[in-house]
Amino acid sequence: MQEFQNLGRYIVRSEKQRCAYGKFEENFEELNKNPVEGFSAGLIDDNDLYRWEVLIIGPPDTLYEGGVFKAHLTFPKDYPLRPPKMKFITEIWHPNVDKNGDVCISILHEPGEDKYGYEKPEERWLPIHTVETIMISVISMLADPNGDSPANVDAAVRWPSLFTLSFLNTIQLDIEYIFLFPKPFKQVKRADASGSSL
Which SUPFAM superfamilies match (predicted)? Predict the structure, then answer.
């Protein structure tokens, strides 16, 4: 993964490129000054501003905890007017990631109305979004998938049962713990209104 220090050598040929260049520079400067917990990002190739590599740390208390997942962000030439595409390079099984690794979440969908009616326009791509807002959304997606519009139907169908199984395993461990280490039983005497013990 290459760092962003070498951007000064790029030749900006059009207004769209100038806009994209400024947005890329702004994104990298912000990420370098104020790194965000949970991911890191950089250029795949010093000579290509439009392709980034990100490493995402699996969020705690999820199926992905402890994992590190590599993904690529590919930006269109008219970025930031249109969203980048994101693809996991590390194999990942998730309702909102298709079998090819392509991420399907609102923030990465083209601006405007959703023809299927699942998303509000403000949930979709806006030019004010940054790599940071994208990555925070993806990390949130890992913890809390959107089952209403899955990219991987098999994962969406099986996802609830994984959490039920995880919950049942936790209860089973709690019950085993109670039987292994029971609390001593104390008989409690209480007095009724007249003051005599019950």
Answer: UBC-like
- Give the span between the Cα atoms of 156 and 173, in whole angstroms: 27
Contact 159, 166 (CB under 8 A): no
CB 198 within 8 A of CB 191: yes
Q: Is 26 left (phi over 0), alpha (psi -120 to 50) or beta?
A: alpha
CA dihedral 73, 77, 81, 87 (to 10 degrees): -20
Burial of 107 (0-12, 13-18, 19+ CB in 10 A): buried
| 104 catalytic per annotation | yes
Domain residue spans of the chain: 5-152
Phi then psi dihedrals of residue 57, to 5 deg = -90, 130
pLDDT tens by residue, 44-87: 988 888 899 999 999 998 888 889 999 999 999 888 999 999 99
In the set 104, 135, 138, 151, the catalytic residue is: 104
C-alpha to C-alpha distance for 20 and 75, rounded to whole angstroms: 9
Q: Measured between alpha carbons, how far is 188 from 184 in angstroms, rounded to an integer?
A: 12
Looking at domain 5-152, its CATH superfamily turns out to be Ubiquitin Conjugating Enzyme (3.10.110.10)
pLDDT above 90: percentage of residues in the chain = 36
